[in-house]
Specification:
alpha/beta; Urease, subunit C, domain 1; TIM Barrel; 2 domains; seven-stranded mixed sheet; 15 strands; 37% helix; binds N-(iminomethyl)-L-glutamic acid; binds zinc ion; imidazolonepropionase activity
Length: 416
């Protein structure tokens, strides 16, 4: 038995067993002066200290939170963790005024990372991704969705997905794999897009489904990437094979991506910077969760999605990092919370909901993680602050003091 006591705020997110919408996103079910008992990696009891303490057995291992804040581990529902190289060179070009699309048209962008990722061995990619996964842990993230999409041949996509499986087997974090073969058409298929779509649908997807290497399939639905019709073909094939769906939609233009996600019954539509009223209504009607990625809008100096509108329309909003080498090189959910608050006027409580319980539901994990309730996995973080709002108020610093996954201490910051 593990017992966590002396929590100034135990931010439980207890509530209905479904994604939170509207005013529910502001209800964090905070227990002041709280405590929690953990048995066999699962939460057994949560409540006020005086209610919980009598149930602590004498041999229990005690964790004194020292009057700090305790939250569920963050769930990052959109990352591109596995790639080789960086794109610091392109970052500098963009700062000098050259647009993301222009750099891509010159052979940079996603394709530059594809070249480097193809050249890397599986072991090299694993070492890079494992090191980065520690950055996430230090920022309080315990579960990550990870997309492939920088391989774009059957062998290279499988290589990336195997790296994700290995991360699951060898690190304490939980990884949910997503196949993003429809990220861009690779160089060698430039003049024959249809052949690349055939490869995706007839070769890659069946192999990935057969090997159980992905839980979701994603596509980049955008001018210059994949059209609505092409994305529909890929995602419909994935759905027939039993994969869940996610979609990069409306990042640079309102191209009908949100409506496509709704039509296909996707779990999420991600980005949505340019989604308008019709798209929002379609997402609402089909219960698709929007995954908003303010760090990529920040890095690109681009438009932010209309997050307040989405919350007011009753969408179960999720916030994620979009960690990737081109548009969002940050592993930090606290940074995303800060951006969501300052740039999109999402309240701090809404942002916590969007990065915990709502994110968990978007990955099909709502019954297991995302809140501190009896029966759930004991994935929680002790932060070096006394009020959860400080997680969005301070920015650019790491406040996580101890991170636990399944009741096991997996990160501890040395005393400073
Ligand atoms: N939009 C497409 N994919 C990534 C960017 C990938 C890259 O630039 O390498 C995104 O989510 O922003
Ligand atoms: Zn992305």
């Amino acid at each position: 038995m593990l017992a966590v006591t002396n929590c100034a705020q135990l931010v439980t997110l207890a509530g209905p067993a479904r994604p939170r919408v509207g005013p529910e996103m502001r209800a964090l079910s905070i227990v002041e002066d709280g405590a929690m008992i953990i048995r066999d990696g699962r939460i057994a009891r949560v409540g006020k200290r005086e209610e919980v303490e009598p149930h602590i057995e004498p041999e229990a291992q005690l964790v004194d939170a020292g009057g700090r804040v305790v939250l569920p581990g963050f769930i990052d529902a959109h990352t591109h963790l596995v790639f080789a190289g960086t794109r610091a060179d392109e970052f500098e070009l963009r700062l000098a005024g050259i647009a993301y699309h222009e750099i891509a048209a010159r052979g940079g962008g996603i394709r530059a990372t594809v070249r480097r990722t193809r050249a890397a061995t599986e072991d090299e990619l694993f070492a890079l991704a494992r090191r980065r996964s520690e950055w996430f842990l230090r920022n309080g993230t315990t579960t990550l969705e990870v997309k492939s999409g920088y391989g774009l041949t059957a062998e290279d996509e499988l290589k990336i997905l195997r790296v994700i499986r290995r991360l699951n087997e060898t690190t304490p974090l939980r990884f949910i794999p997503t196949f993003l073969g429809a990220h861009t058409v690779p160089d060698e298929y430039d003049a024959r897009r249809a052949d690349y779509l055939d490869l995706l649908i007839n070769e890659m997807l069946p192999r990935i489904a057969q090997d159980g290497l992905a839980q979701f399939c994603d596509a980049f639905c955008e001018e210059g990437a994949f059209s609505v019709e092409e994305s529909r073909r890929v995602l419909s094939a994935a759905k027939r094979l039993g994969l869940g769906l996610r979609l990069h939609a409306d990042q640079f233009s309102d191209g009908g991506g949100a409506q496509l996600a709704a039509e296909l019954g996707a779990a999420t539509a991600d980005h949505l910077e340019y989604t308008g009223d019709r798209g929002i209504k379609a997402l609402r009607a089909a219960n698709v969760q929007p995954v908003l990625l303010p760090a990529s809008a920040y890095v690109l100096g681009a438009k932010y999605p209309v997050a307040r509108r989405m919350i007011e329309e009753g969408l179960a909003v999720v916030l994620a990092t979009d960690f990737n080498p081109g548009t969002s090189p940050t592993p930090s959910i606290p940074m995303v919370i800060s951006l969501a608050a300052t740039q999109m006027k999402i309240s701090l409580a809404e942002a916590i909901t969007a990065t915990t319980i709502n994110a968990a539901y978007s990955l099909g994990l709502g019954a297991r993680v995302g809140s501190l309730e009896a029966g759930k996995d004991a994935d929680f973080v002790i932060y070096d602050c006394g009020d959860y709002r400080e997680l969005g108020y301070f920015f650019g610093i790491e406040l996580a003091k101890e991170v636990y996954i399944g009741g096991r201490l997996v990160f501890s910051r040395p005393e400073s």
